[in-house]
TrEMBL record:
Residues 214-266 form the PAC domain. This is histidine kinase. It is an enzyme of class 2 (transferase). It is found in: Cell inner membrane. Its EC number is 2.7.13.3.
Length: 679
């Protein structure tokens, strides 16, 4: 489709021109302009392949129209109709950008299609040529940019003149200003890095001798002292006889690539090292996990403290390959740490060593807070020397049960994985120790309950026996009184009946009193000021006769300076009577009994001591104040008892604000009651 604009204000001419053009161009879009306003609007609206304008217009002239057209579209071709013989107008119009002209007359209209086609062909040729020139210019510019971007230069060594030509870019690569290279091989060789000169010489000589292509990477030193890497590619050009005449090639600055390669090599080496380290860490992690699993499997279901801790220190010592490892348990009440188990003790055995926590606060305070401690000793240890140590607490529920100590060489620093493993082992040990101790406590409770149950059974058996015996005696006495209501024998039976009734009443009273003391704090008491020197003889008298009857030696020592004692007399009498009764009951014939009362002025105490020549086994001492407890095989006179006496005594002493203690050694047992006096 040919788009054509016709600027002509003559309708007839317009018709003729259109007819001629339509005959030649089948696809023609013709638009006409008859006034200036329409011309500007049409030029601004669309782009035309060709414009035909008349020189003579009513509203303007052809040169003005030509300039308007070129102002809007400089590349649009224009043909102008001129008057015959008006060559000056045509020349002026050609200077303003007119492409061709034609004399305006009906006889010349037939030539218009030929002129249009000629102008279009010429414009197309001009356009193509311009495009080719633009493309060549762009290609050259791209080559220049490519050479510059690639940091590439070109060199040409002419052997006939022994001159080398460098492009500006080649000079820039070598750090020279444009045009400053003097063209000699020696000048080039001076710029080669001294360590690479021999290699460059050999490579160039080999290429020339073998007529082979040249390629070499080497370093150059610029005039400013900086070192660059280049790669040179060259080709030997030969004459007809096969002799080298020229040596041409390129130079590329590959410094960035070389630095990148070096960086890549370093990065590769770093990555390989990281992979090796990570693989080693992974392998170590797997080993640590296996160690942790072994320890967990062994200690998880164990209820034996020794097995738990010995397993932990041994597995840690072997798994970490350390010099020594030990486990210590804390006694927070005493403030001590005792090493109970250790691995590799042959170097410096520490088992049984006790440390006082207060003597090393810088170590044990963090451990008591559940914190890990890693340090080395500054002073040379006589056993260990200079070593690094790690202490990890066995911590559970805000309580530290003990710690694990690891000893290694002085230059060693524990890694995070090792610290995590030790902490996990310590945590598992703490849990296992807690379970073991809970189990031991439960077992102790079970044993205690079994023992209490046995004591209950014994008590019931004893009480039933003790209750039944007086009843049986009373029944026997009543039966005999029925047979013999009078006489000497009757008096004896009445005495038996009275004694057994008292015995029965005493047993029941003991039970009731003990129950009342344990369950209630409110008692009706009658406190009096007692003169012990006057009051005690009546309490002791019954036991003098009893000791004499059993051939026992009763010694009485009452201090003469005893002050008045404000006390409930009946309770004190009951305490002393029970202690003297036990002394008589458990002392064999010809054995000694000592009753002593003295004053301790410094502490304002009156001390009552009852000693008898009979020893209580050490294992039984903690239990003698328990209810229903009776020492096995300790009743030489077979008088029996309920096991309530000493329990009742302890409660009564405490009610009076005193203390009672017992010692048994060297064949003697001593009960000591201390009561506070006001004087």
């Amino acid at each position: 489709m040919l788009r054509l604009l016709l600027v002509d204000d003559n309708v007839d001419d317009h018709f003729l021109i259109a007819r001629e053009l339509q005959r030649e161009f089948s696809e023609l879009q013709l638009e006409a302009v008859t006034e200036t306003t329409n011309l500007v609007q049409i030029l601004e609206r669309g782009k035309f392949d060709l414009v035909i304008t008349d020189y003579r217009l009513r509203w303007s002239d052809g040169l003005t129209v030509l300039r308007e057209i070129k102002a809007h579209n400089p590349d649009c071709p224009v043909i102008m109709f001129t008057d015959s013989g008006n060559q000056e107008v045509a020349v002026e119009a050609m200077k303003s950008g007119l492409d061709d002209y034609l004399t305006k007359s009906p006889k010349h209209y037939s030539q218009l299609p030929m002129v249009v086609r000629s102008v279009l062909d010429r414009v197309q040729h001009t356009t193509e040529q311009k495009l080719m020139e633009d493309a060549l210019h762009q290609s050259e510019e791209r080559l220049r940019l490519a050479l510059s971007a690639a940091q590439m230069g070109i060199w040409d060594w002419d052997f006939q003149t022994n001159q080398t030509t460098w492009t500006e870019n080649n000079e820039r690569i070598f750090g020279l200003s444009p045009g400053s290279f003097n063209g000699t091989y020696e000048a080039f060789f001076e710029l080669v890095h001294p360590d690479d000169r021999n290699m460059v010489n050999q490579a160039i000589s080999r290429s020339l001798e073998q007529r082979s292509n040249y390629r070499l990477e080497h370093r150059i030193v610029r005039p400013d002292g900086s070192t660059r890497w280049i790669v040179s590619n060259g080709e030997v050009l030969l004459d007809k006889t096969g002799h080298p005449v020229r040596f041409v090639g390129t130079t590329i600055d590959i410094t960035e690539r070389k630095e990148a390669e070096l960086g890549l090599q370093q990065l590769t080496a770093t990555l390989e090292q990281q992979v090796r380290e990570r693989t080693a860490r992974l392998e170590q992690t797997l080993e640590f996990e296996a160690t942790l699993r072994r320890i967990t499997d062994k200690v998880r279901d164990s209820l034996d403290e020794s097995q738990i801790l010995q397993t932990a220190v041994q597995e840690l010592g072997i798994g970490l390959g350390i010099n020594s490892c030990n486990a210590a348990l804390y006694d927070l009440d005493k403030g001590i740490s005792t090493i109970c188990y250790e691995y590799n003790p042959s170097l410096f055995p520490m088992k049984g060593h006790i440390s006082h926590l207060s003597e090393f606060p810088e170590i044990y305070q963090p451990l008591l807070r559940g914190e890990l401690m890693q340090f080395c000793n500054l002073i040379n240890n006589p056993f260990r020397g200079r070593v690094s140590m790690l202490a990890c607490p066995m911590f559970i529920e805000h309580e530290v049960l003990g710690d694990l100590w690891l000893v290694v060489d002085k230059e060693y620093g524990f890694k995070k994985q090792e610290l995590r493993l030790v902490q996990q082992v310590a945590n598992h040990c703490a849990i296992a120790l807690r379970q073991a101790r809970l189990y031991q406590a439960a077992q102790a409770q079970v044993e205690e309950l079994e023992k209490l149950n046995q004591l209950k059974d014994d008590f019931l058996s004893t009480v039933s026996h003790e209750l039944r015996t007086p009843v049986s005696n009373m029944k026997m006495a009543i039966r005999m009184l029925k047979l013999m209501p009078n006489g000497e024998r009757a008096d004896r039976y009445w005495k038996i009946l009275e004694t057994e009734c008292d015995r029965e009443a005493m047993l029941v009273n003991d039970l009731l009193d003990l129950q009342q003391l344990e369950t209630s704090s409110n008692f009706d008491i009658s406190i009096e000021s007692v003169c012990l020197q006057e009051w005690l003889p009546s309490v002791i008298a019954p036991f003098k006769a009893r000791a004499q009857e059993h051939q026992q030696q009763l010694t009485i020592d009452i201090s003469s300076d005893l002050p008045l004692l404000v006390v409930e007399p009946n309770r004190l009498e009951r305490v002393l009577a029970e202690l003297l009764n036990n002394a008589c009951k458990y002392t064999p014939g010809k054995g000694g009994i000592v009753f002593k009362v003295c004053r301790n002025a410094a502490s304002h105490l009156i001390q009552f001591t009852v000693q008898n020549q009979a020893e209580i086994p050490e294992t039984e001492l903690p239990h003698i104040f328990e209810k229903f407890y009776r020492i096995p095989n300790a009743d030489p006179w077979k008088q029996g008892g309920t096991g309530l006496g000493l329990a009742l005594v302890k409660k009564l002493v405490e009610q009076m604000g005193g203390e009672i203690a017992v010692k048994s050694q060297n064949g003697w047992t001593a009960f000591e009651v201390n009561l506070q006096h006001s004087g």
